[in-house]
Design brief:
Length: 178
């Protein structure tokens, strides 16, 4: 039995779950999240709890059992509380700004980089250098944060770039003069 998969997921009053054979739709005060359910996995809603079961004991089904349960748990938690990631921009002249439904980055390239804000996501920029990505879908919050960081990865020699708040950058020594 999967240790993660066998745990039931408790639902609060705010969260509603619509289950079909192929998909689970979780809705709450912060938005909606849809999860595809793989073949061989059954999801039941009993007494304000969601129970995930598998059809057989194969390695594939055991892996999908725990994965599906955790994805549904993340969706339930996300529509109730939300997820948030923070990034910092370090470098002289590097900044970001929200313009309508897009974020514009000026980070040392010959042109500004524009990132459209997906539906259901909130991106805030404070003081031009602190970015907060918020949303109900944990996967989407992580993906957008990773995409922003990828625009200008931190440089280990100069320490400039976009990094997660609290990320420890290991600095390298440059060339030594003789």
């Amino acid at each position: 039995m999967s240790r993660v998969g066998k745990n039931p997921i408790a639902l609060s009053e705010k969260v509603k779950v619509n289950l079909t054979a192929e998909r689970a739709e979780v809705s709450g005060p912060l938005g909606n999240v849809k999860i595809n359910i793989p073949k061989g996995i059954k999801v039941k809603n009993e007494d304000k709890k969601i129970i995930v079961e598998r059809s057989d004991d194969s390695q594939q089904q055991r892996a999908l059992h725990g994965l599906t349960r955790q994805l549904i748990f993340n969706a339930v938690s996300g529509v109730e509380k939300g997820y948030k990631k923070e990034l910092d921009i370090v470098g002289v002249g590097y900044k970001a700004a929200v313009e309508g439904k897009k974020v514009v980055f000026t980070i040392g390239y010959s042109h500004p980089i524009e990132l459209p804000i997906p539906d259901g996501m909130k991106i805030n920029v404070e003081k031009g250098t602190h970015i907060t990505v918020e949303g109900a879908d944990k996967e989407m919050v992580g993906h957008i944060s990773s995409l922003i960081r990828h625009f200008k990865k931190p440089d280990p020699y100069k320490g400039k770039g976009i990094m997660f708040t609290g990320e420890r950058l290991i600095r390298k020594a440059g060339k030594q003069a003789k």
